[in-house]
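Please fill in the sequence for the structure shown.

STRUCTURE ENCODING:
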């Protein structure tokens, strides 16, 4: 086993939840490490964000980079390109966090904020051409296929949104969906009105076709009559939704029927010292600002937990102060009776 590096807190995931948790942990003076496959997570799929409080317009990537810079300002560290695959509780109450690349870390508290991952098609050729024509983010990779014939394999609002986005970039798009079109009527009408979109309802993907280096087509099957058809495309965008990949914490933390991590109102799991936030939890309304807020609660709970472990009072710095004691201001007026 590789020698384990020690931190006060470790955040698993660098999406909006992971970054927000890391910001508040590092700001409280804790030695904090963020472990993630990439920076941004699902946030990268948001080309334009217009509903984040205080920010008129930004992109998911810009928001992620801005928060990452804030975290680094407070001393937070990042390890990208790796994935946590095991967490175990040590005899002294700390945690051992291990990754796929063989790295080991010890910490007093862990915040699980690794979000959800795209649901894959599960067909031949998908893995082989992942990143070479098969994409799970039309917002991220769509511009790479400008002027090329593409396919969107999806369903619901997510699939419709991807089609509308790609319609501005591709001369022809095949929309392969296993059901009848469903979602917001406005989106359905918009997709149906596009001349460059071929809608293939009740079809499923069978095989990704390629020349060994890139995608050249997609074999699909008509679900009703079992007839297969090959469509010639250079890009395939998979928009089938997302799932929580929580297998590595199964048996450690309590999960619901969707494999989401169950938390209380302050981000605690059923394991002391182990916290969670964001889309990977059972909190409804999967929105960036909600994930950020939930992550802040989890981070402050983790800080308080660490302080208690060390026999200290868990004083949390408020947003209205920098350092030192809170200065009490005299009221500007008194309310009359």
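FILLED IN BY: designer on duty
SEQUENCE:
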């Amino acid at each position: 086993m590789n020698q384990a590096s020690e931190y006060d807190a470790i955040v698993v995931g660098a999406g909006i939840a992971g970054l927000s948790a890391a910001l508040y942990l590092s700001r409280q003076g804790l030695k904090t490490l963020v472990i993630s496959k990439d920076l941004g997570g699902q946030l990268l799929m948001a080309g334009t964000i217009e509903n984040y409080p205080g920010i008129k317009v930004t992109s998911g990537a810009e928001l992620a980079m801005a928060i990452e810079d804030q975290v680094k300002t407070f001393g937070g560290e990042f390890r990208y390109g790796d994935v946590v695959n095991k967490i175990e509780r040590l005899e002294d109450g700390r945690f051992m966090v291990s990754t796929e690349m063989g790295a080991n870390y010890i910490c007093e508290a862990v915040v699980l904020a690794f979000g959800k991952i795209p649901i894959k098609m599960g067909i031949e050729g998908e893995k082989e051409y992942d990143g070479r024509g098969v994409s799970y983010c039309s917002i991220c990779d769509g511009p790479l296929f400008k002027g090329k014939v593409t396919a969107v394999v999806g369903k619901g609002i997510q699939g419709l949104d991807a089609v509308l986005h790609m319609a501005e970039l591709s001369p022809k798009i095949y929309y392969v969906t296993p059901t009848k079109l469903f979602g917001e009527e406005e989106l359905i009408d918009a997709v149906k009105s596009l001349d460059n979109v071929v809608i293939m309802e009740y079809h499923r993907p069978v095989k990704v076709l390629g020349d060994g280096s890139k995608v050249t087509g997609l074999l699909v099957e008509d679900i009703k009559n079992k007839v297969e058809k090959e469509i010639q495309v250079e890009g395939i965008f998979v928009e089938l939704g997302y799932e929580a990949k929580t297998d590595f914490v199964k048996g450690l933390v309590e999960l619901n029927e969707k494999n989401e991590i169950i938390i209380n109102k302050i981000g605690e799991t059923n394991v002391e010292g182990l916290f969670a936030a964001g889309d990977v939890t059972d909190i409804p309304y999967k929105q960036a600002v909600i994930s950020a807020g939930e992550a802040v609660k989890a981070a402050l709970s983790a800080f308080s937990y660490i302080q208690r472990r060390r026999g200290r009072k868990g004083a949390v710095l408020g947003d209205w102060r920098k350092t030192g004691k809170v200065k009490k201001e005299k009221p500007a007026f008194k309310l009359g009776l």
